Amino acid sequence: xxxxxxxxxxxxxxxxxxTVAANLVKALNNDITQAIDCxxxxxxxxxxLKPNIFEKQKVSVPIxxxxxxxxxxxxxxxxxxxxxxxxxxxKEVIVFPELCHGCGACSLFCPEGAxxxxxxxxxxxxxxxxxxxxFVRGILNPGEVLAPAVISEAKARIEDKKNVIIDSPxxxxxxxxxxxxxxxxxxLVTEPTPFGLNDLKLAVAMCRKIGVPFGxxxxxxxxxxxxxxxxxxxxxxxxxxxxxxxxEFARCYARGKCIVDEFPEWMGVFRKLWNDIRExxxx
Amino acid sequence: xxxxxxxxGKDMSAEVDSRFGRCSYFVIVDVDTEDYRAVExxxxxxxxxxxxxxxxxxxxxxxxxxxxxxxxxxxxxTLEAAGVEVYTGASGTIKNxxxxxxxxxxxxxxxxxxxxxxxxxxxxxxxx
Lengths: 283, 128
Description:
The structure holds two protein chains of two kinds. Chain A is of the alpha/beta class. Chain A is 35% helix and 29% strand. Chain A is built from eleven helices and eleven strands. By secondary structure, chain B is of the alpha/beta class. Classes of the chains: A alpha/beta, B alpha/beta.
């Protein structure tokens, strides 16, 4: 059986990505699985999985450093910078590290070789274990914007032949694309409300654009209306699971527990979800 | 001497845009002759670094002072490096702002009057 990399995303925030990810991890609980928290701006998968962390590594991005003896203030660096992160005024080159995306264009195009790249720390990758599953989490330093750099570092920990569950950030912007690209399947978690549907449509458009197969999980089933179900049917998108809106589940979440911890009958439900994804990918 | 006033429109009767980096236009005025021209701000809708981009543009125009409502830290740093003075608190029409500048009613700032991203959240400009 081929390994499977599943990313769990959503348009709207707070729909239950982490809930689904954590329950899947616990339902699989085997040594051929990795859980990766790529919601690096506010990772919270660890709150539900309580992993033992045994390794921390810094994530850095390259930023330009100017050799003033070589610089002729020709402005080439600032012309090629897409982010206004480097600017030349009079006889001064100003670098704004927080705007720099670390693309290296300035040093590549500098005709004088006056720019070298130095590392700037933007985050951390933690690695550990939860049960038999390997746990990885990316953490972006507060105030930083380069989430994709930390996400791609976290995904670099993906091992051959292992199944992978990726908890993605919400939305449809660069960090989400970084998290879901290259995965075998995107599980879009939504809620049956107009807000859920609106953002689900954006997430579906994103998945189609980047060409990753996807399916839907509806969380808090029972609130709102049936428009998400209707949308899934009309668009021929697999609706893989409905998680009912229940006080017991909310209570369990508030205590940092997974549904499968307190309601063992859900183990089978999440294992079936995994197998259904596998079936969907095979098609 | 040329100064640049951040503007919502293209002439002297247009209203001052209180944002620097993401203003709609720069009205560049020769203080002595009152000749002016308006230039659309190419950095108004960039995803980031609008203040820096606008400041670099202003410096390239040979402008000696900027008259605006507010200025953020990165734009100010860039303008200061080039020796461009920044006057904040301007309001009314571009003509009013020019008078306020000439009569010394505006103050030159050495510290940002707003934090970064101000212009993103205050698209209409004006009050906080």
